[in-house]
Amino acid sequence: MAWIYLLMAGFLEVGWTFGLKYSEGFTVLVPSIITVVLLAASFYLFAKSMQIIEIGTAYAMFTGMGTVGTVIAGIMFLDEPVDFWRMFFIVLLISGIVGLKLVSKDKKEESSQQTKTDQITQQERA
């Protein structure tokens, strides 16, 4: 469930980033309110995910998803430029996010493994 929270937090990050643009420095009321709500929801979900996922992995994935999502949304909806190097670095960033996911261990998984190790050690002593 923590990974779902983190994924939703990343999507909401893209939303509040766009909200910042359209709030014009928090001078336009409706986009400002939407931005603050999306920001609060995003950070809530991000915090929930860190109960299970390592902080470094969670933060890198949260900001990485937000970055990639915002760049892609900017290309799609704001006519931002697309060139080889921009796409190359997006792919590189996604590779790093996937790599972190593959090598990270959830906190509950680690405590479960530690419990099994403790049980084996106790059995060996008996």
TrEMBL record:
Localisation per UniProt entry: Cell membrane
Keywords assigned by UniProt, alphabetized: Cell membrane, Membrane, Transmembrane, Transmembrane helix, Transport
Family per record: Belongs to the drug/metabolite transporter (DMT) superfamily. Small multidrug resistance (SMR) (TC 2.A.7.1) family.
Topology within the bilayer: Multi-pass membrane protein
Entry protein name: Quaternary ammonium compound-resistance protein SugE
Location of the region described as Disordered in the Swiss-Prot/TrEMBL record: 105-126
TM region(s), chain numbering: 29-47, 59-78, 84-103
Biased composition (Polar residues): 112-126
Organism: Paenibacillus harenae
